[in-house]
Structures are given as structure tokens and as C-alpha cells.
Design brief:
InterPro entries: ArsR-like_HTH, AsnC-type_HTH_dom, Dimeric_a/b-barrel, Tscrpt_reg_AsnC-like, Tscrpt_reg_AsnC/Lrp_C, Tscrpt_reg_HTH_AsnC-type_CS, WH-like_DNA-bd_sf, WH_DNA-bd_sf. With 158 residues, this protein is α+β, with helices and mostly antiparallel strands. The protein is built from 5 helices and 4 strands; from the N terminus they run αααβαββαβ.
């Protein structure tokens, strides 16, 4: 999949769907300047080619009482394939982990974790994270306030 395969209409479709995945095909077609049938065909092609991964609803963490966001840096004892695979398998099973990145620099992984309170965070760290084999060091930073949050990828309309 290469971005060069996307023409202006494909980019417009992706931009509109990132704004509102529930838009009807008729509305989408009007917004991007196509008739409904070719628009639907393009959307299906974008899905098949992997440009559209999923359609989701963005749920408010605050409305669910998940008011604490923590960024956790994790260092492993060793960085061999099996240790990385074990950590990645286990961490993806933890519902509190919203994002996990393999990093360069001082730590091996960066996690974004959401929890309702400090007790839940302590439980997560002590009962879940530290129990993963090979975890050597954990450092946490608390988000005081979310300044910016985007789900739309920057697509050039040109």
C-alpha cells in the first residue's frame, strides 16, 4: 500500500470519513463530488486495500470515570526477540493500555494507560505490569490536562 495510489477523490473520502464515519454514502458522495455508486465502490476499494482499518465510536473516558491518564515508560531486562514478544503479547491483553509503542532512547516501551483512580493505577502496576516477565524498570508520568487530541491523520488534499 503506497500513498501515491491515492488520488484527490480518495483523499477527500478518507478526510470525510475521519471526520464522521457514520456519514451516509449519499452524503459522502455529495461532499466529495461523486455520485453514490462510484463513491461506494471507492470506499470498498479503500477498505480492501487497507486504507480504512475500522469504523469506531470515540467514547469519552471522563464520562466513564476514567479520569487519570498515565504515560508509563517500561524498560526490559533484555531486548531479545522473545522478551519483546512476551511483553507485547501480555501488554496488549491489558484493557487499561490504550497505546503501546516500542521506543528508542532511555526506555524500551511507552504506554498510555487510563484508569479511574490511584488505587486502580497501583493495582495495574503491581498486579499486571510488574508481573510481566522481563520488566526491569517502570517510570510513570501523569497527564495533568489533555491539550490536544486528534484521530484524523493529516491528509494532503493535493
Amino acid at each position: 500500500m503506497t500513498q501515491a495510489r491515492l488520488d484527490l477523490i480518495d483523499r477527500r473520502i478518507l478526510t470525510e470519513l475521519q471526520k464522521d464515519a457514520r456519514v451516509s454514502n449519499v452524503q459522502l458522495a455529495a461532499r466529495v463530488g461523486l455520485s453514490p455508486s462510484p463513491c461506494l465502490a471507492r470506499v470498498r476499494r479503500l477498505e480492501q486495500e487497507g486504507y480504512l482499518k475500522a469504523y469506531v465510536a470515540l467514547v469519552s473516558p471522563e464520562a466513564l470515570g476514567l479520569s487519570i491518564t498515565v504515560f508509563i515508560q517500561v524498560s526490559l531486562e533484555m531486548q531479545h526477540k522473545e522478551a519483546l514478544r512476551t511483553f507485547e503479547t501480555r501488554v496488549t491483553e491489558l484493557p487499561e493500555v490504550m497505546e503501546c509503542y516500542l521506543m528508542t532512547g532511555d526506555s524500551d516501551y511507552l504506554l498510555r494507560v487510563v484508569v479511574p483512580d490511584m488505587e486502580a493505577l497501583q493495582s495495574f502496576i503491581m498486579q499486571d505490569l510488574t508481573e510481566i516477565p522481563g520488566v526491569r524498570n517502570i517510570r510513570s508520568s501523569f497527564a495533568l490536562r489533555q491539550v490536544s487530541y486528534k484521530t484524523e491523520l493529516p491528509l494532503s488534499a493535493e
